[in-house]
Amino acid sequence: MGLNKQKRKEILSLRDTLTVAELAAKYKVTKKEIEEIIRTDLPVSTGRKNPAWFYFVLVLIPVLFFVLLEVGLRLSGYGDNYEQWVNATPTRLMLNNDIAKRYFYTTKSLPFSIQNTFDAEKKPGAFRVFVMGESSAAGYPFSPNGSFSRYIQKRLEVLYPGRTIEVVNIALTAINSYTLRDLFPGVIEQKPNLVLIYTGHNEYYGALGVGSLESVGQFRFFVNLLLKLNEYRTTQLLRNFISSLTSFFASENKTESGTLMSRMAK
Questions:
Q1: HSE on the CB side for 147, CA within 13 Å?
Q2: Which one of 32, 96, 180, 199 is least enclosed by Cβ atoms within 10 Å?
């Protein structure tokens, strides 16, 4: 004789405390019937779906945490300004001297450009040239006067005496094409008439290169994504934490010697 609904509920409530054999003996049915009752209930008890708002809140909580953390770090003044251009004067811009922090994570002596400035608002008829590259483009070891950008500036001024000539050299020592790719959109925003790129020497050992002390991996997508995330204070907090942790276990007797490029080989 089949069990009624009430007895089935009792069996299900006791299934965690009594064995199938004990339940069969208690309700005077076969073990097969007990197993069938328990089995038919499993999809009901385990297949229950959570409401849509549950998954929304599940995603929202970590997102909200990082948004609040980022806002809090910015309000407290934590981190560095990684904007590409800063004001040299109220009307003139230059490459941010702290820009190298976007590419160098462990090196203390960071490179900076020869600090050419240019008009924040490009003058009508001005001829603007940007020079990008590494230490050779910067004129090392005779920078800034040894840089070829100075000769280009003088030559253009002689050829076009009636025009405003701006030759802006933003080359940095010990970088490679990761840095150039990252800076290039900001250069285009400044409406150059010409961009000269002299590079290729440091692809392996330059900052973020696969053979560099500053390498963060071999996957270009990950490296470029990290460069985009560097503007966030949360990323800087994580970077500084990892750097402090690394320094804690590193030898304190280590001293920096030689050129920056020579120190980049890991």
A1: 28
A2: 32
